[in-house]
Amino acid sequence: MIKVGIIGCGKIADQHAEQIQRIRGSEIVGVCDTEELMAKQMHERFPVKAYFSDPTRLLEVSQPHVVHITTPPESHFELAKLCLEAGCNVYVEKPFTLNTEEAEKLIGLAVEKNLKLTAGHNSQFTHVAIRMRKLIQNGFLGGPPVHMESYYCYNFGDPAYAKALLGDRNHWVRRLPGKLLQNIISHGISKIAEFLTNDSPRVIAHGYSSPLLKSIDETGIIDELRVIINDNNNATAYFTFSSQMSPTLHQFRIYGPRNSIIVDDDHQTLIKVNGARYKSYLNQFIPPYIYAKQYLGNSWDNMKKFMKRDFHMDSGMKVLIESFYRSVLGEAPVPISYREILLTAKIMDAIFAQLNSGHACFSEEEIGERKA
Amino acid sequence: MSHNDLVITFYDPILITGASGFIGSKVVETLLASGYKNLRCFVRPSSNLTTLKQMVGSFENSKIDLIEGNLLSPEDCARASDGVSVIFHLAAGMEKTFPGSFMNSVVTTRNLLESTLQQKNFKRFVNVSSFAVYSNFNTKRGGILDESCEVESELVERYEPYVFAKVKQDQLVTQYAKQNNIPCVIVRPAPVYGPGKAEITSRVGIDTFGIFLHLGGSNTIPLTYVDNCAEAVVLAGLKRGVDGEIFNIVDDELPTSRKFLKMYKKNVRHFKSLNIPYAAFYMFCYLWEKYSNWSKGQLPPVFNRRRCSAYWKGNQYSNEKLKSLLGWRPRVGFDEASKRYFEYLKNGRKSP
Q1: Is A342 helix (H, G, I), strand (E, B) or coil?
Q2: Which of the following CATH numbers is that of domain A2-119: 3.40.50.720, 3.40.50.970, 3.40.50.300, 3.40.920.10?
Q3: Predicted interface score ipTM higher than 0.90
Q4: C or N terminus of chain A, fewer CB within 10 Å?
Q5: Cα–Cα distance for residue pair B147/B116, rounded to 1 Å
């Protein structure tokens, strides 16, 4: 039985608890929030053994094997360090840390103590993301990726988050180095990082406040971001974050030398784009039919999964947590490689360094120089 | 009401949280119209203050402070409640998640209650709760629902973040009042309607599935017009001798759901609706609940028997306690209230 603790009892903690409940052989032995009322309300709604307002008490009394850190990002590093030092494996919600330096320290500590760490990049483990990974492993692209496009958008039309953020000048998101972007884009960046081969890719970022935010005098928040990533000329990638684009895309496109794949997280569709061309007019008749057939197949697959009770809203989180627990038990490697976690952090650092300085930087070294 | 009946004078400071909200702004107006001269209106920085500013502008002889802040901040609470005699606590968390709703209703209320402990001349804390906290699961169809009825205890099964937060908020207020001798009154308004409210109460029906499902049938719909509700809230904060009491706020002359919907269609706009008998929808909720359990939450149990019962089973409602202890009478009758409401909807807002 894996004993699990959760630190931070806000909105995302509910999703964690719901998924942990669905995993056989795991139990939540304690939850903790510095606001005791929040810890108590979670304890009342979930089958949780105890609640605490002090993380050290959770670690001492409940002695969890794994701790999920679901607090605002500013505290991720200190709490994860505390848990690792207490001998716990740690699942850290996204963004993993505030910067690469913190990420490196945590990973170093985990390796030193022979413990496991993972980041909450759960959109990497949705049904379609897993299918895409298998196709790529089986050589569908026909070689290493040539180019990638990752769209990870956010709709300010969702009043709950936008109101909480825009209405509160002291909201914790405003204190992050990358502000709103830091809290959201790691999902989309990690999708690119997984397929990069170079550890120091060149990054060019361009960001600005949308006309919507400017109209309400909100110029401190950047909500439109375009990024070009160059993997030392092995592969390139575009990353797009937008609060104004409609539809609010969560899409990943990966282009190989022979074929390509388009994965849509919102609709849970995976489309195989075949590089072969048909003769003459057939090239306009046959491929649309093939795509239509694929979309129908996706729809049918999704319905089948739903009928089999395997299509929960947070299915990616469940798969990630389950895979992480298996790695803790020594049955599998960590679900997200430490290299991928670090590379995601490095790319994000590069983006924020450029946005904050107003200048484009191109490599990790240059970012270091600018920081210095 | 004579001065001897009141816990404060016209010059004692009064704090109103959620002052820019639908009921809050009307509470401010009622207090000003009643002659209270020293009001503190607590609002969020993101609040739209146009209506509130226009309204307070017409009471030039009163001292009205607009305080921007966040009730999650104990410092903001202390600043707002410094020296006040009465607090009307109307701010509430309307978020759709359990933690969000809880944090913005319960943690905020705790902060506010804590801040009152420092006040030497504190007379009353009015906690504005909701009719939704009641459970009629074990009550007969058509039975009386009043202050003595059971409050929802199966909050996980009921699966409504707002209800969860409001029940916990009421519990916290009761506990704080007892432990710290804070004079408190809890008021539980029925669904409030009037100009400013855009939606028809879900007790009439819902449009979740793309068509308006009329679920209220011939049930009496508990309603309170915003002016009547504000007066009741104000009385609950001012009337001497009602500390520790709970009051349901519901008007006289309540319409049936069918009548209300018919009036809406006639006076605002026509739309298609489907009448669903209570038994049929109860069965639907039962099956949904079972499926939710069986599928381990693939569909969350948003439709469940307890919720179905609370909103669409149908009860009779009493305001006797409000009338006898506070001397409240609904000043605006249903005919006039509905006329004003439908005019407002017709001239601007769309519903459902």
Answers
A1: helix
A2: 3.40.50.720
A3: yes
A4: C
A5: 26
